[in-house]
From TrEMBL:
Name recorded for this polypeptide: Probable branched-chain-amino-acid aminotransferase
Record-linked NCBIfam families: PRK06680.1
Organism of provenance: Candidatus Rhodoblastus alkanivorans
Catalytic activity: L-leucine + 2-oxoglutarate = 4-methyl-2-oxopentanoate + L-glutamate; L-isoleucine + 2-oxoglutarate = (S)-3-methyl-2-oxopentanoate + L-glutamate; L-valine + 2-oxoglutarate = 3-methyl-2-oxobutanoate + L-glutamate
GO molecular function: D-alanine-2-oxoglutarate aminotransferase activity
Entry-linked InterPro entries: Aminotrans_IV, Aminotransferase-like, BCAT-like_C, BCAT-like_N, Class-IV_PLP-Dep_Aminotrnsfr
Pathway the protein acts in: Amino-acid biosynthesis; L-leucine biosynthesis; L-leucine from 3-methyl-2-oxobutanoate: step 4/4; Amino-acid biosynthesis; L-valine biosynthesis; L-valine from pyruvate: step 4/4; Amino-acid biosynthesis; L-isoleucine biosynthesis; L-isoleucine from 2-oxobutanoate: step 4/4
Domain of life: Bacteria
Record-stated family: Belongs to the class-IV pyridoxal-phosphate-dependent aminotransferase family.
Key words, A-Z: Amino-acid biosynthesis, Aminotransferase, Branched-chain amino acid biosynthesis, Transferase
EC number, as in UniProt: 2.6.1.42
Length: 286
């Protein structure tokens, strides 16, 4: 079965799908996106993702060309046409195609909307979670608005590649004051030496993860002590546990940072517990 993508009103074979070379996202990374998990054929926390897309659009003065209900229809259609049981949908909106000029195109230039679906492998994801992942730390060299989910991801791309080349799964980004902000494509968490669940506040220094928000609710419901505050790398080394979260990873325990074991060097109970209960608590829409 060939994959099907959505481009500006049409469903087409993924391999044949394309946009103009004048597209602002191609030329300037002038676009926004969302990645939504599909679990048992349902979209997880779809509403939160679409609200964040609208916020990203507003922050960048980019016009969303259709209402959330129309976007929902497209995402559902892609899940069905690609027969995704477990996986993800990707949705991107750009400022459209126009003669190259840094300033915005003239009013009325249609935005570009692209969406596609990926099938995932639940067993492989579970195996990764139970093995735990390694992380490296790198300076956070991103612009000052990583709270906007834009396709301008070069620092993230470079950080992820450096992690891969070091045999790690993720890079934790450290700001000028020594605090871990987040991962290159995930939020960063520790269970500190006092047993408190700690993650960076959702301010302009990080992307306010939809998975992160859901996990905070689950952790509160489970009676865990939670503090949203920045933590240093030194604190992470002393932590009982560490983990990452995101729509593509849900929760992955971190067993080593920069080659140093975290806690016992095995996935922690808090991380695995949150992962195990995630889909019981996360609203899914069919
Ligand atoms: N990334 N921080 C960054 C920098 C991210 O890119 C992501 C997600 C997150 C987690 O956000 P959420 O829980 O809403 O997925 C945090 C997606 C999955 C990606 O770029 O593929």
């Amino acid at each position: 079965m060939s994959r099907v993508a959505y481009v500006n009103g049409r469903y087409i074979r993924h391999a044949a799908a394309g946009v103009s070379i004048d597209d602002r996202a191609f030329l300037f990374a002038d676009g926004i996106y969302e990645v939504i998990e599909v679990f048992d054929g349902r979209l997880i926390d779809e509403e939160g993702h679409l609200l964040r897309l609208a916020r990203s659009a507003a922050q960048l003065r980019l016009t969303l060309p259709m209402a959330a209900t129309a976007l929902r229809r497209i995402l559902r259609e892609l899940v069905a046409r690609n027969r995704v049981t477990d996986g993800h949908v990707y949705l991107q909106v750009t400022r459209g195609a126009a003669k190259r000029d840094h300033g915005f195109p003239k009013p009325g230039t249609p935005s570009t909307v692209v969406a596609f679906a990926h099938r995932g492998d639940r067993a492989a994801a579970e195996a990764r979670a139970h093995a735990g992942i390694k992380v490296i730390s790198l300076p956070d060299i991103r612009w000052k608005r990583p709270d906007i989910k834009t396709t301008s991801l070069l620092p993230n791309v470079l950080a992820k590649q450096q992690a891969k080349e070091a045999g790690a799964y993720e890079a934790w980004l450290v700001d000028a004051d020594g605090f871990v902000t987040e991962g290159s494509s995930s939020n960063a968490w520790i269970v500190d030496s006092a047993g408190v669940l700690v993650t960076h506040p959702a301010d302009s220094a990080i992307l306010a993860g939809i998975t992160r928000a859901r996990l905070l609710k689950i952790a509160a419901a489970r009676g865990l002590k939670i503090v949203e505050r920045p933590f240093t790398l030194a604190e992470a080394f002393r932590a009982q546990e560490a983990f990452i979260s995101g729509a593509t990873t849900i929760v992955l325990p971190v067993v080593a940072i920069d080659g140093q074991n975290i806690g016992s060097g095995a996935p922690g109970a808090v991380a695995l517990g949150l992962r195990a209960s995630f889909h019981e608590f996360a609203p899914a829409t069919a």
